[in-house]
Amino acid sequence: EERKSWKPFIGYDSLRIELAYRPRGSPAGSSSNSSPEAFEPGSPGIPPSEPVCVRGGLYEVDVANSESYPVYWNQSEKIPVMRGQWFVDGTWQPLEEEESNLIEQEHLSCFKGQQLQENFDMEVSKPLDGKEAVHSLKLSRTHVDWHSVDEVYLYSDATTSKIARTVTQKLGFSKASSSGTRLHRGYVEEATLEDKPSPTTHIVFVVHGIGQKMDQGRIIKNTAMMRDTARKIEDKYFSNLATHVEFLPVEWRSKLALDGDTVDSITPDKVRGLRDMLNSSAMDIMYYTSPLYRDELVKGLQQELNRLYTLFCTRNPEFIEKGGKVSIVSHSLGCVITYDIMTGWNPVILYEQLLEKEYDDLEDTWMSYEEQHLLEEFYLTKRRLKEIEERLHGLKKSTISKTPALKFKVENFFCMGSPLAVFLALRGIRPGNSGSQDHILPRTICNRLLNIFHPTDPVAYRLEPLILKHYSNISPVQIHWYNTTNPLPYEHMKPSFLNPAKESTSVSESDSLPTLPSPTTSPVLARRHYGESITNIGKASIMGAASIGKGLGGMLFSRFGRASAPASQALEAGKEGPELEEKKPSLSQASITTQTFPHSSSGFLDPTMDLEHRIDFELREGLVESRYWSAVTSHTAYWSSMDIALFLLTFMYKQEQIF
């Protein structure tokens, strides 16, 4: 691109690159200014053959080939690196290396060792027009005049010159201008070793969802946006902390072969573009629900997470020594795969639970003597098989230590635009009787689970109603705008109810339970002012789809149906609630059951119970947003959000600073 500009490395990186460069010798010729002795003793020297680690360890510089490349992800295009010597006044952009080397060589040959400094200093105050060039150098389409040692000007002989084009465009000179452009030897700022990044104490793995095959490298760009946004927030709010949070992209999809090109070969040619887009995006969901390819997706992400962690610790040995922490930010389907890796869930577990229940149901039915005999034999054989499995497992455990799925403990698991709640609901997870996160994700695996979503994101669902059912009537926590002054800490924010206007007739109007209607018997009122909440799993609808996991059709209707309905219809739906609860087969995992409390006639959990920590956090809608347009764009709008960047850093810096 013509508008590309050079960006300087920080001082620490510049000096280390220079030290690696100098032993190789400068094309402009040797000089006292380019010898390693010019540096102070004890400077961090690097062997010429080794690449130089720069930009906080994310990139390396190959000094011999003058290019930079990322360490933790693949990038086809190398980033060019230039040793700047002569710079354009005003913009401080470097001249191209070839011309710069010629000017430097001429400058040294003319002025090195000559006692002219005092004379030139005396003439600095004189206007330029009154001076004649002490020395001149003719280049291909330009010439350089030295009016003094520190007054060097570039003049264009032909405006087609690349240097002149760059200079005139950036400085606004006309092509016919006779005035030269002043050049400076050396950059405007002097590089110092003190200008170095803070040590990384927290790394964040950023996991993509569907569509990576369609747009390879997208997660790298998205992570770069999130990293740049987080840098700005760090500088503004956390600059007093001498630590740093690093974001690393986890690209797990493009390396997987899966079915090869089988799906492409069976795809019709009509509207091929749309079909290819669906094959490269929505097909990932079908792959994940396939027993044949699910493990391949899980292993792909698991191996990439472990590879990145091992690589980072190898290059930063002090990270573990100083108690460095790891968090994961996952998007869309990536949340589900990450969750399954952390918890070790797989469809076989669910199948075994359903099979166990099927056999238990057989005991309650009438059976012939032969059937009873076969069932007893089956149980004896199954018990024997289990004993053999345990013995075999014990032998293996003594010789081979089981490696955990992940080589690190996850401090925070941030879900963005996540359908995880739907997957859990369809796996039989039902609300429990405690407000602990352990109900869906044990704290021993992950210290904190946080579910972030945009209010109009059609893929995002709430997690809190899967822990305590009455939270379907409690609004998610509103994420602070990044420029809010003195925001209330999230742990101090009180729950607010979605239906504060009316009390339910089934709940006594006592002070102990204000605005706590039973979700099945209270009329479904209009949502908040900005529109219908799309994340309210378990909310009673006019069609009686009050129960979580009633089926995807019910969920979709609940999402896109009207927010309000006549009170009589809502009450009728509420009357059906207890019957639906009783008829619903128990497909939940062991120890996950819906209990009925004495004061609740509807079968719902104790509404006075609170979550230990809030999990659902909702972005605030813009005042001028179109809800329909937001529904299309919101699922991918998380990466550059300053609000989300501040939210992430607030929880990751929580141990070091109370924000």
Q: Over the alpha carbons, how many angstroms does the gyration radius reach?
A: 33 Å
- The total of helices stands at 18
Q: Report the principal-axis shape.
A: elongated
Total beta-strand segments:
16
CATH architectural name of the domain at 200-347 and 405-495 and 610-657: 3-Layer(aba) Sandwich
The major β-sheet equals: 7 strands, parallel
- Low-confidence sequence ranges: 27-43, 116-127, 172-177, 501-605
CATH-derived topology of the domain at 200-347 and 405-495 and 610-657 = Rossmann fold
Structural class: alpha/beta
Widest sheet: strand ordering: 11-10-12-13-14-16-15
What distance lies between the first and last C-alpha atoms, to the nearest angstrom?
Answer: 42 Å
* CATH hierarchy, class of the domain at 200-347 and 405-495 and 610-657: Alpha Beta
Overall mean confidence score, pLDDT: 74
Helix proportion = 25-40%
Structure notes:
InterPro entries: DDHD_dom, PA-PLA1. It comes from Podarcis muralis (Wall lizard). This is DDHD domain containing 1. Residues 23-43, 512-524 have a biased composition (Low complexity). Residues 502-511, 586-597 have a biased composition (Polar residues). The strands form 3 sheets. The chain has a 7-stranded parallel β-sheet with strand order 11-10-12-13-14-16-15, sandwiched between helices. A 5-stranded antiparallel β-sheet has the order 5-9-8-7-6. It has a 4-stranded antiparallel β-sheet with strand order 1-2-3-4, with helices on one face. Among the domains are: 1-24 and 47-83, no CATH class; 85-109 and 131-185, no CATH class; 200-347 and 405-495 and 610-657, Rossmann fold (3-Layer(aba) Sandwich). Helices cover 33% and strands 12% of the residues. The protein is elongated and about 115 Å long. It is built from 18 helices and 16 strands. A hairpin with a 4-residue loop joins strand 2 (59-62) and strand 3. With 659 residues, it is of the alpha/beta class. Helix 5 crosses helix 18 and helix 9 crosses helix 11 (333-343).
